Amino acid sequence: MMQLLSDESYMRFALELASSAQGQTSINPVVGCVLVKDGRMIGMGAHLRRGEAHAEVNALLMAGDEAEGSTAYVTLEPCSHYGKTPPCSKRLIEKGVKRVVIAAQDPNPLVAGTGIRLLREAGIQVDVGVLQEEATVMNEVFNKFIVTGMPWVTLKLASTLDGHIASRTGDSKWITSEASREYVHMLRHQHQGIMAGADTVLADDPQLSTRLSVPALQPVRIIVDGALRVPPSARAL
Amino acid sequence: MMQLLSDESYMRFALELASSAQGQTSINPVVGCVLVKDGRMIGMGAHLRRGEAHAEVNALLMAGDEAEGSTAYVTLEPCSHYGKTPPCSKRLIEKGVKRVVIAAQDPNPLVAGTGIRLLREAGIQVDVGVLQEEATVMNEVFNKFIVTGMPWVTLKLASTLDGHIASRTGDSKWITSEASREYVHMLRHQHQGIMAGADTVLADDPQLSTRLSVPALQPVRIIVDGALRVPPSARAL
């Protein structure tokens, strides 16, 4: 059955917009924004690349003058600081948005709530927490980094039921399936780096690249090789 | 499991963009567009209102100068004529898009294929038919209108298992459920007009309005009343 129009349905769509940019925003979070006025969507946007327009700005661009009096659904608290782009809270205020619905607060404890406060001080109705869990899980990589300064690490390990990663002969192709290999390539597309030890590179000569049916993002290749054993002919180099 | 990057996954996202505008484009079709370059989404858009920018134009607006050399995924064949806005085929050519993937051809037999031909004549690679069925079903209302000139009519009839629409006493509230009533309100949001006969208006005094948890679109109220029996006090007036 079709989804009923509601704060949640609009936020779910904003989450889809955000999700579509998963992996391509570098150390920035993925964010989606939908602008609605008088029962009609007037703008939509996502943050597509670090240093480029935030989701709110892209949605406002599409809405143009219609933005005045609209409701903005944003998956992450609008920023309040001058970074690579001017603060989105200010932009929403300037454009006359009258209500802002937010899924998740800024995960950075030092700034969480400041964007919301700015909006409220400007007389905008702000509602926080619609689909908060989905929005938080979506940015688990960013959230860990912004709070701890540490990178999110995904371990890919193919192992047999009894805990081995290769047969006695060293032959390890393939104990995984077609589906898991495709999944790994999507993970690569969504990660900034891919790391392997020298032993793995020497044994498997992996390409450490993302291979899908259409061009994808290529993570930085990192080889941990304390003794420079990997030859220049390695396919990853 | 996460969706693999592919022509289909991008088209599926473009279909979601289109679907989000269901009901608000008047006699125009709903259309979504995604622009991709080097494994990265650089623009997205939908057609939001008749007379305003088409999906391709909104996506190109978000992409800016990056559009050159990109691939465009469009749920409907880009238009080739000057209507309320300039033709999108021309715009895609001007912006240097190098490949266009289309879900469904223009349903109007008189113009189907002309947008595709324009693009191909400009040296653009055009692939047609990715998720064609989904794209066609999505615009069944528009497709019927543009081919036959007739409106799409949805009949809402609440009836008992034995074929009655009210009890012997004329009491008909409620033989439907909460879920079906909410569904009907979404249908109203997505239709341009809502029609009832004078007997229904006299018996039920319906509001003929869309009532959801957030503001929705209100269809034009049409009452078929050959003898002007409906009083000015009727709630629908």
UniProtKB/TrEMBL annotation, chains A, B:
Catalytic reaction annotation: 5-amino-6-(5-phospho-D-ribitylamino)uracil + NADP(+) = 5-amino-6-(5-phospho-D-ribosylamino)uracil + NADPH + H(+); 2,5-diamino-6-hydroxy-4-(5-phosphoribosylamino)-pyrimidine + H2O + H(+) = 5-amino-6-(5-phospho-D-ribosylamino)uracil + NH4(+)
Record GO terms (molecular function): 5-amino-6-(5-phosphoribosylamino)uracil reductase activity; diaminohydroxyphosphoribosylaminopyrimidine deaminase activity; zinc ion binding
GO biological process: riboflavin biosynthetic process
NADP listed as a keyword: yes
NCBIfam families in the record: eubact_ribD
Family of the protein in this entry: In the C-terminal section; belongs to the HTP reductase family.
InterPro entries tied to this protein: APOBEC/CMP_deaminase_Zn-bd, CMP_dCMP_dom, Cytidine_deaminase-like, DHFR-like_dom_sf, Eubact_RibD, RibDG_C, Riboflavin_Biosynth_HTPR
Alphabetized PANTHER family for the sequence: 2,5-DIAMINO-6-RIBOSYLAMINO-4(3H)-PYRIMIDINONE 5'-PHOSPHATE REDUCTASE, DIHYDROFOLATE REDUCTASE FAMILY PROTEIN (AFU_ORTHOLOGUE AFUA_8G06820)
Lineage, uppermost ranks: Bacteria, Bacillati, Bacillota, Bacilli, Bacillales
Pathway(s) the chain acts in: Cofactor biosynthesis; riboflavin biosynthesis; 5-amino-6-(D-ribitylamino)uracil from GTP: step 3/4; Cofactor biosynthesis; riboflavin biosynthesis; 5-amino-6-(D-ribitylamino)uracil from GTP: step 2/4
E.C. numbers: 1.1.1.193, 3.5.4.26
Keywords for this protein: Hydrolase, Metal-binding, Multifunctional enzyme, NADP, Oxidoreductase, Riboflavin biosynthesis, Zinc
Residue span, CMP/dCMP-type deaminase domain: 5-127
CDD domains, alphabetized: Riboflavin_deaminase-reductase
Pfam families in UniProt: dCMP_cyt_deam_1, RibD_C
Protein name: Riboflavin biosynthesis protein RibD
Protein's job: Converts 2,5-diamino-6-(ribosylamino)-4(3h)-pyrimidinone 5'-phosphate into 5-amino-6-(ribosylamino)-2,4(1h,3h)-pyrimidinedione 5'-phosphate.
Names of required cofactors: Zn(2+)
